[in-house]
């Protein structure tokens, strides 16, 4: 045995050298992709323009419209073809925040750190603060006729804990082993919104009261966040959808916890508190349609088949959507750029067509990706997220790669329960073991656009990423800004994803699929 | 040996019991003080009113004036005598922030988290942003005539690091042993303000230019802080003092780092940035005098001697001065309350007079404490912090205890180089070993009011405190708010300090003093 090994290595070496003399082999492709992805990276330039210059990209907003136009041009500029906006319907109106300020006036002045929830109606005025503290529908009665012109606190104090643990983290061997040992995931039940029927009835009655009373604003302090970091997303209504045209939406403000608690503590001490607000916004886009951004690198012998890759491009409005999901969007645009540079350098063309998609409406329910899949690959069920039947073009999509878990580099990939793809991805990760990416997890990840593909029987994947500060500080917060992107991590992610796209394009077979009960139309 | 020990313990036990039958011994006093300080604490109620209700307490501001009046009443209410405001002169005008808002208008709207530096002149308007990037005085020429109506960036980008280490900390045995092993401190040289003569000349020329040009505002991003935490103190001038009446002070704004960097990165990409600001403030108190708050618990047989304890009460303006130094002020007020309750319960009167001082003007140079010491105990040198000679009453102050290092509980005490006091304090800490306070450090701490006493030859001390989030998050920041006070820590601190005051009052001798070259007048 000992004597055989050197001979074998010698033989492999010969093959490798002879391959280099013809066309780049797989190892060379990885090297070339790494050169363009790591040494010549442009991911941070893309991300800076996307977040710093274009800013927030709330679906339906002017910000997203401008960002879509920029992406369409930028994808052409980097060398993609057929770059275009592809419309989808039924989102509802958009919302542009045009001015926001809030201050305490009494007992003493201070400027308040707060943000309106998206789709809040405009509001302006000065008034006192009351705490709406009702545990039953009957208790709501005492607030009737008393909330107009007031600021209404909706929540009790939340205690703030000092950060004796790091708020930013990377995976360690323990957490990776746990992922690697994950068993076949159980199809998740759609989570029902909080609590029991009584609680739901109280909530509905509370919001009906608020919509009747029309306070200056309701105030809350979000479930997490401190020290100036505020987590804020969309406004709610008693019933229906805040995106319906002409619908009045109670102005809903989320305050920095320190400012919320300060107001609450003063009320507890019977100190009257007076605030002033000027929150202005425009409802936009009354026809309610939106666009995804789509572009391609054409394939050759298998050009009717596609490899798709994408990320949601829309964001919430208080930050600039840097880690949610400027990072994923910039990485996917950069992956396309890396592949184009690799094609130029090697002269090797992709076999399948490579198609990028920057989705919109993800934050409100994966709308962009579901509408896209619903148009091209499957017919949606009448209600909910489910798919009823499959279209013929579903067969042409070999796979879809998504990124939407922040700025952290890739430590591996979730198989989304697709065991058959495991040996393939294991092989593809080999050139990136030196970059810490080697874990294969049978587990799935939820809550983002690969699900639209997965539910239509198309292999759709997310990667295992370093958590960094995603869940603790940036995801849906006012501090989701460029400064919390980690450049080296994004370079690594773009490089690995480019390689996965390339390999999916070049293999003879499509990626193996999970069994499905869905039928073709 | 083995047989002797039980006998000895037995003997000690007998003495202890017999002492209990007469008057409370030292151990009992500690127990009673702990009961009032820990079980019946009011420190968080005091701190909440001081920070939440009274708010910022910038020296010279209406906020501090109101806070002084409240403290004067509150000290009477808890049972102190002779509570009064004691004036000191020469501070200069005060400054009340009455309105602040700042927004980006182009290329896209967002509300900016920022604060004016204290004593900034009011400013209102909309304008473009320029980066003042001069490394020599000659290079300033190109900005002449071009800064009026503009926002002027003064600093390069500061890279933001994610928090892979905790931002809040407690001492561990390693850091305490280091403190315990500290050697005799070397008298510190007064630190000279940054750099060489060229740098100083450039700074002066820059501020002269800015005072001539009168931009809408200068913008900086402070040395530390991120994620919505902004560190901001006082405005600067080319020469002289921003507190001089009628002096124009360039409006100087400190921005959240993410917002500052975002603007800077856009300028780097040649994207014009337009901001709008409305920063309004009133200059107050043109006569320029201030007050410390003083109150006493009268002594008995040694009533002409005093034990002093205090903390600076003034704060910066962007937060509510919770850890700097609402914590110290509330703890000292609470220590007084604990002692009064202890006196009521035991019937034992203090021998020396116990005098609390809530100092003002600390943030601008320990003015309140230095002026107080200069009036009663020593004559100040003509310039600088030094003392020229001592007054007779200096002999009557046994010691001064100060607290000004945030919310952390006490782990021990700094001897401030006073070795002779070591065995005394070591004994006094014994009842608090169970509360983690046991370290004696020969080292000194600087930068706060005990120095005024120390320099006049009066034993002045600060305690070793847990760091918590003081230097990383709250000290001089907009997030120095009540929520970052740790209640259990403050209770412990008030309890231990009450006991130290009591022991200083009751011992036959005054506390030993360090040798001094100063002469009595």
From TrEMBL, chains A, B:
Residues 1-21 form the signal peptide. Coiled coil: none annotated. It comes from the Bacteria. Homodimer. The monomeric form is inactive while the homodimer is active. InterPro entries: CPQ, Peptidase_M28. This is Carboxypeptidase Q. SUPFAM superfamilies: Zn-dependent exopeptidases. The lineage of its organism: Bacteria, Pseudomonadati, Bacteroidota, Flavobacteriia, Flavobacteriales. Keywords: Carboxypeptidase, Endoplasmic reticulum, Glycoprotein, Golgi apparatus, Hydrolase, Lysosome, Metal-binding, Metalloprotease, Protease, Secreted, Signal, Zinc, Zymogen. Pfam families: Peptidase_M28. The keyword Manganese does not apply. It comes from Urechidicola vernalis. It is found in: Endoplasmic reticulum; Golgi apparatus; Lysosome; Secreted. Its main location: endoplasmic reticulum. Residues 292-500 form the Peptidase M28 domain. The keyword Endoplasmic reticulum applies.
